[in-house]
Amino acid sequence: MVFDAPPATATHSWMPSSPCGAGCIEPIDQVGTARMLARLAGVVGLVLSFPVLTVATPKSRRENLQRSYARAALGCLGMRLRIVDRRAPEQGASTDGFADSGTAVMVVAGHIGWTDIVALAAVQPVSFVARADMVEWPVLGKLARLTRVIPIERAHLRALPGVVDQVARRLAEGNRIAVFPEGTTWCGRAYGSLRPAMLQAAIDTTTPVQPVRLRYLDRHGTPSTVPGFVGDDTFADSAERVLRSKGMVVEIVLEPLERPGLDRRDLARRCEAAIRGADRSRHGVFDTEWIASGNTRVQDPSVDAQNTRSTSATAR
């Protein structure tokens, strides 16, 4: 299968970008319009009732309420949840979620689309670092505010240290925080490199990191790109595509915990290895070598030059 994915444009040279676009989205089985509208009504009903029930529920039971709501939302989106726990018992395999209540953990996952937030919350309620404009989105924005999303302006690089400090404070208070270190969304078959900057918060607070392998499967068990929020997608376009999908499964694999250590780049590499496993990017990211530069990584231009010379020599 060939992906017709035009290069993405970035506001500045350090802003993560993805080549994924409309050509990455492969259609799957769909439900009819009436079923889609019924699903939408279900989601809206959940969002409207959530604040009322949250206030009426004792604090000791709110976590279970939030998890139940997230799972109900996945059902309204036409998705089934599958959780695979690969942790050892001493690492939390006996825990009903990412970590015991009041225990800090940084959840690290690849980023495919807005449904990732619902899927992770269905495992256990967490706060997220997410794009700042999400709080203005219809329906999902209200949930973002209720779950104490930490907003990040991807176009403003100078704001990044402040966001990292905010994440560190939340972790020091014993909260669970989910981050998407790719810094942008990919289609689900292609992946970006994990940027190490956000992981500094785990190092500063000696917080364990929970790598999560997240993927969406169609009814045949084939990875699906339908939930990918990429290219020129609007929220309305993406929501309609998801609501029309049929037989979708979101699979959450809890990989063994990673200790933070002292080097965020090493931590990023370990998390990336845990999350990706044997997967390879359909856009060739894993064929690229990277060099460290400040708080992120950039492509080594000498690699392209070497590849060009090798290709020319082979042609001769």
Short description:
By secondary structure, the chain is of the alpha/beta class. It is built from nine helices and nine strands. Mean pLDDT is 81; it is low at 1-9 and 284-316.
Structure, explained:
This protein has 316 residues and is an alpha/beta fold. It has one domain: Glycerol-3-phosphate (1)-acyltransferase (3-Layer(aba) Sandwich). It has helices at residues 33-56, 59-76, 115-123, 140-146, 160-172, 200-204, 235-244, 264-276, 301-315; strands at 79-85, 105-109, 127-131, 150-152, 176-179, 209-217, 248-254, 290-293, 296-299. Mean pLDDT is 81; it is low at 1-9 and 284-316.
Return the domain count. 1
pLDDT averaged over residues: 81
What is the CATH class? Alpha Beta
List low-confidence stretches.
Answer: 1-9, 284-316
Q: Just name the CATH architecture.
A: 3-Layer(aba) Sandwich
Report, as a whole number of angstroms, the end-to-end distance.
Answer: 30 Å
Number of strands: 9
Helix proportion of residues, in percent? 25-40%
Numbering strands along the chain, what is their spatial order in the largest sheet? 1-7-6-2-5-3-4
Describe the largest sheet: 7 strands, mixed
Question: Strand-residue fraction?
Answer: 15-25%
Q: Class by helix and strand content?
A: alpha/beta
Rg over alpha carbons: 20 Å
Q: What global shape is seen?
A: globular
**Helix run count:** 9
Question: Can you tell me the CATH topology?
Answer: Glycerol-3-phosphate (1)-acyltransferase
Q: Which H/E pattern describes the elements?
A: HHEEHEHEHEHEHEHEEH
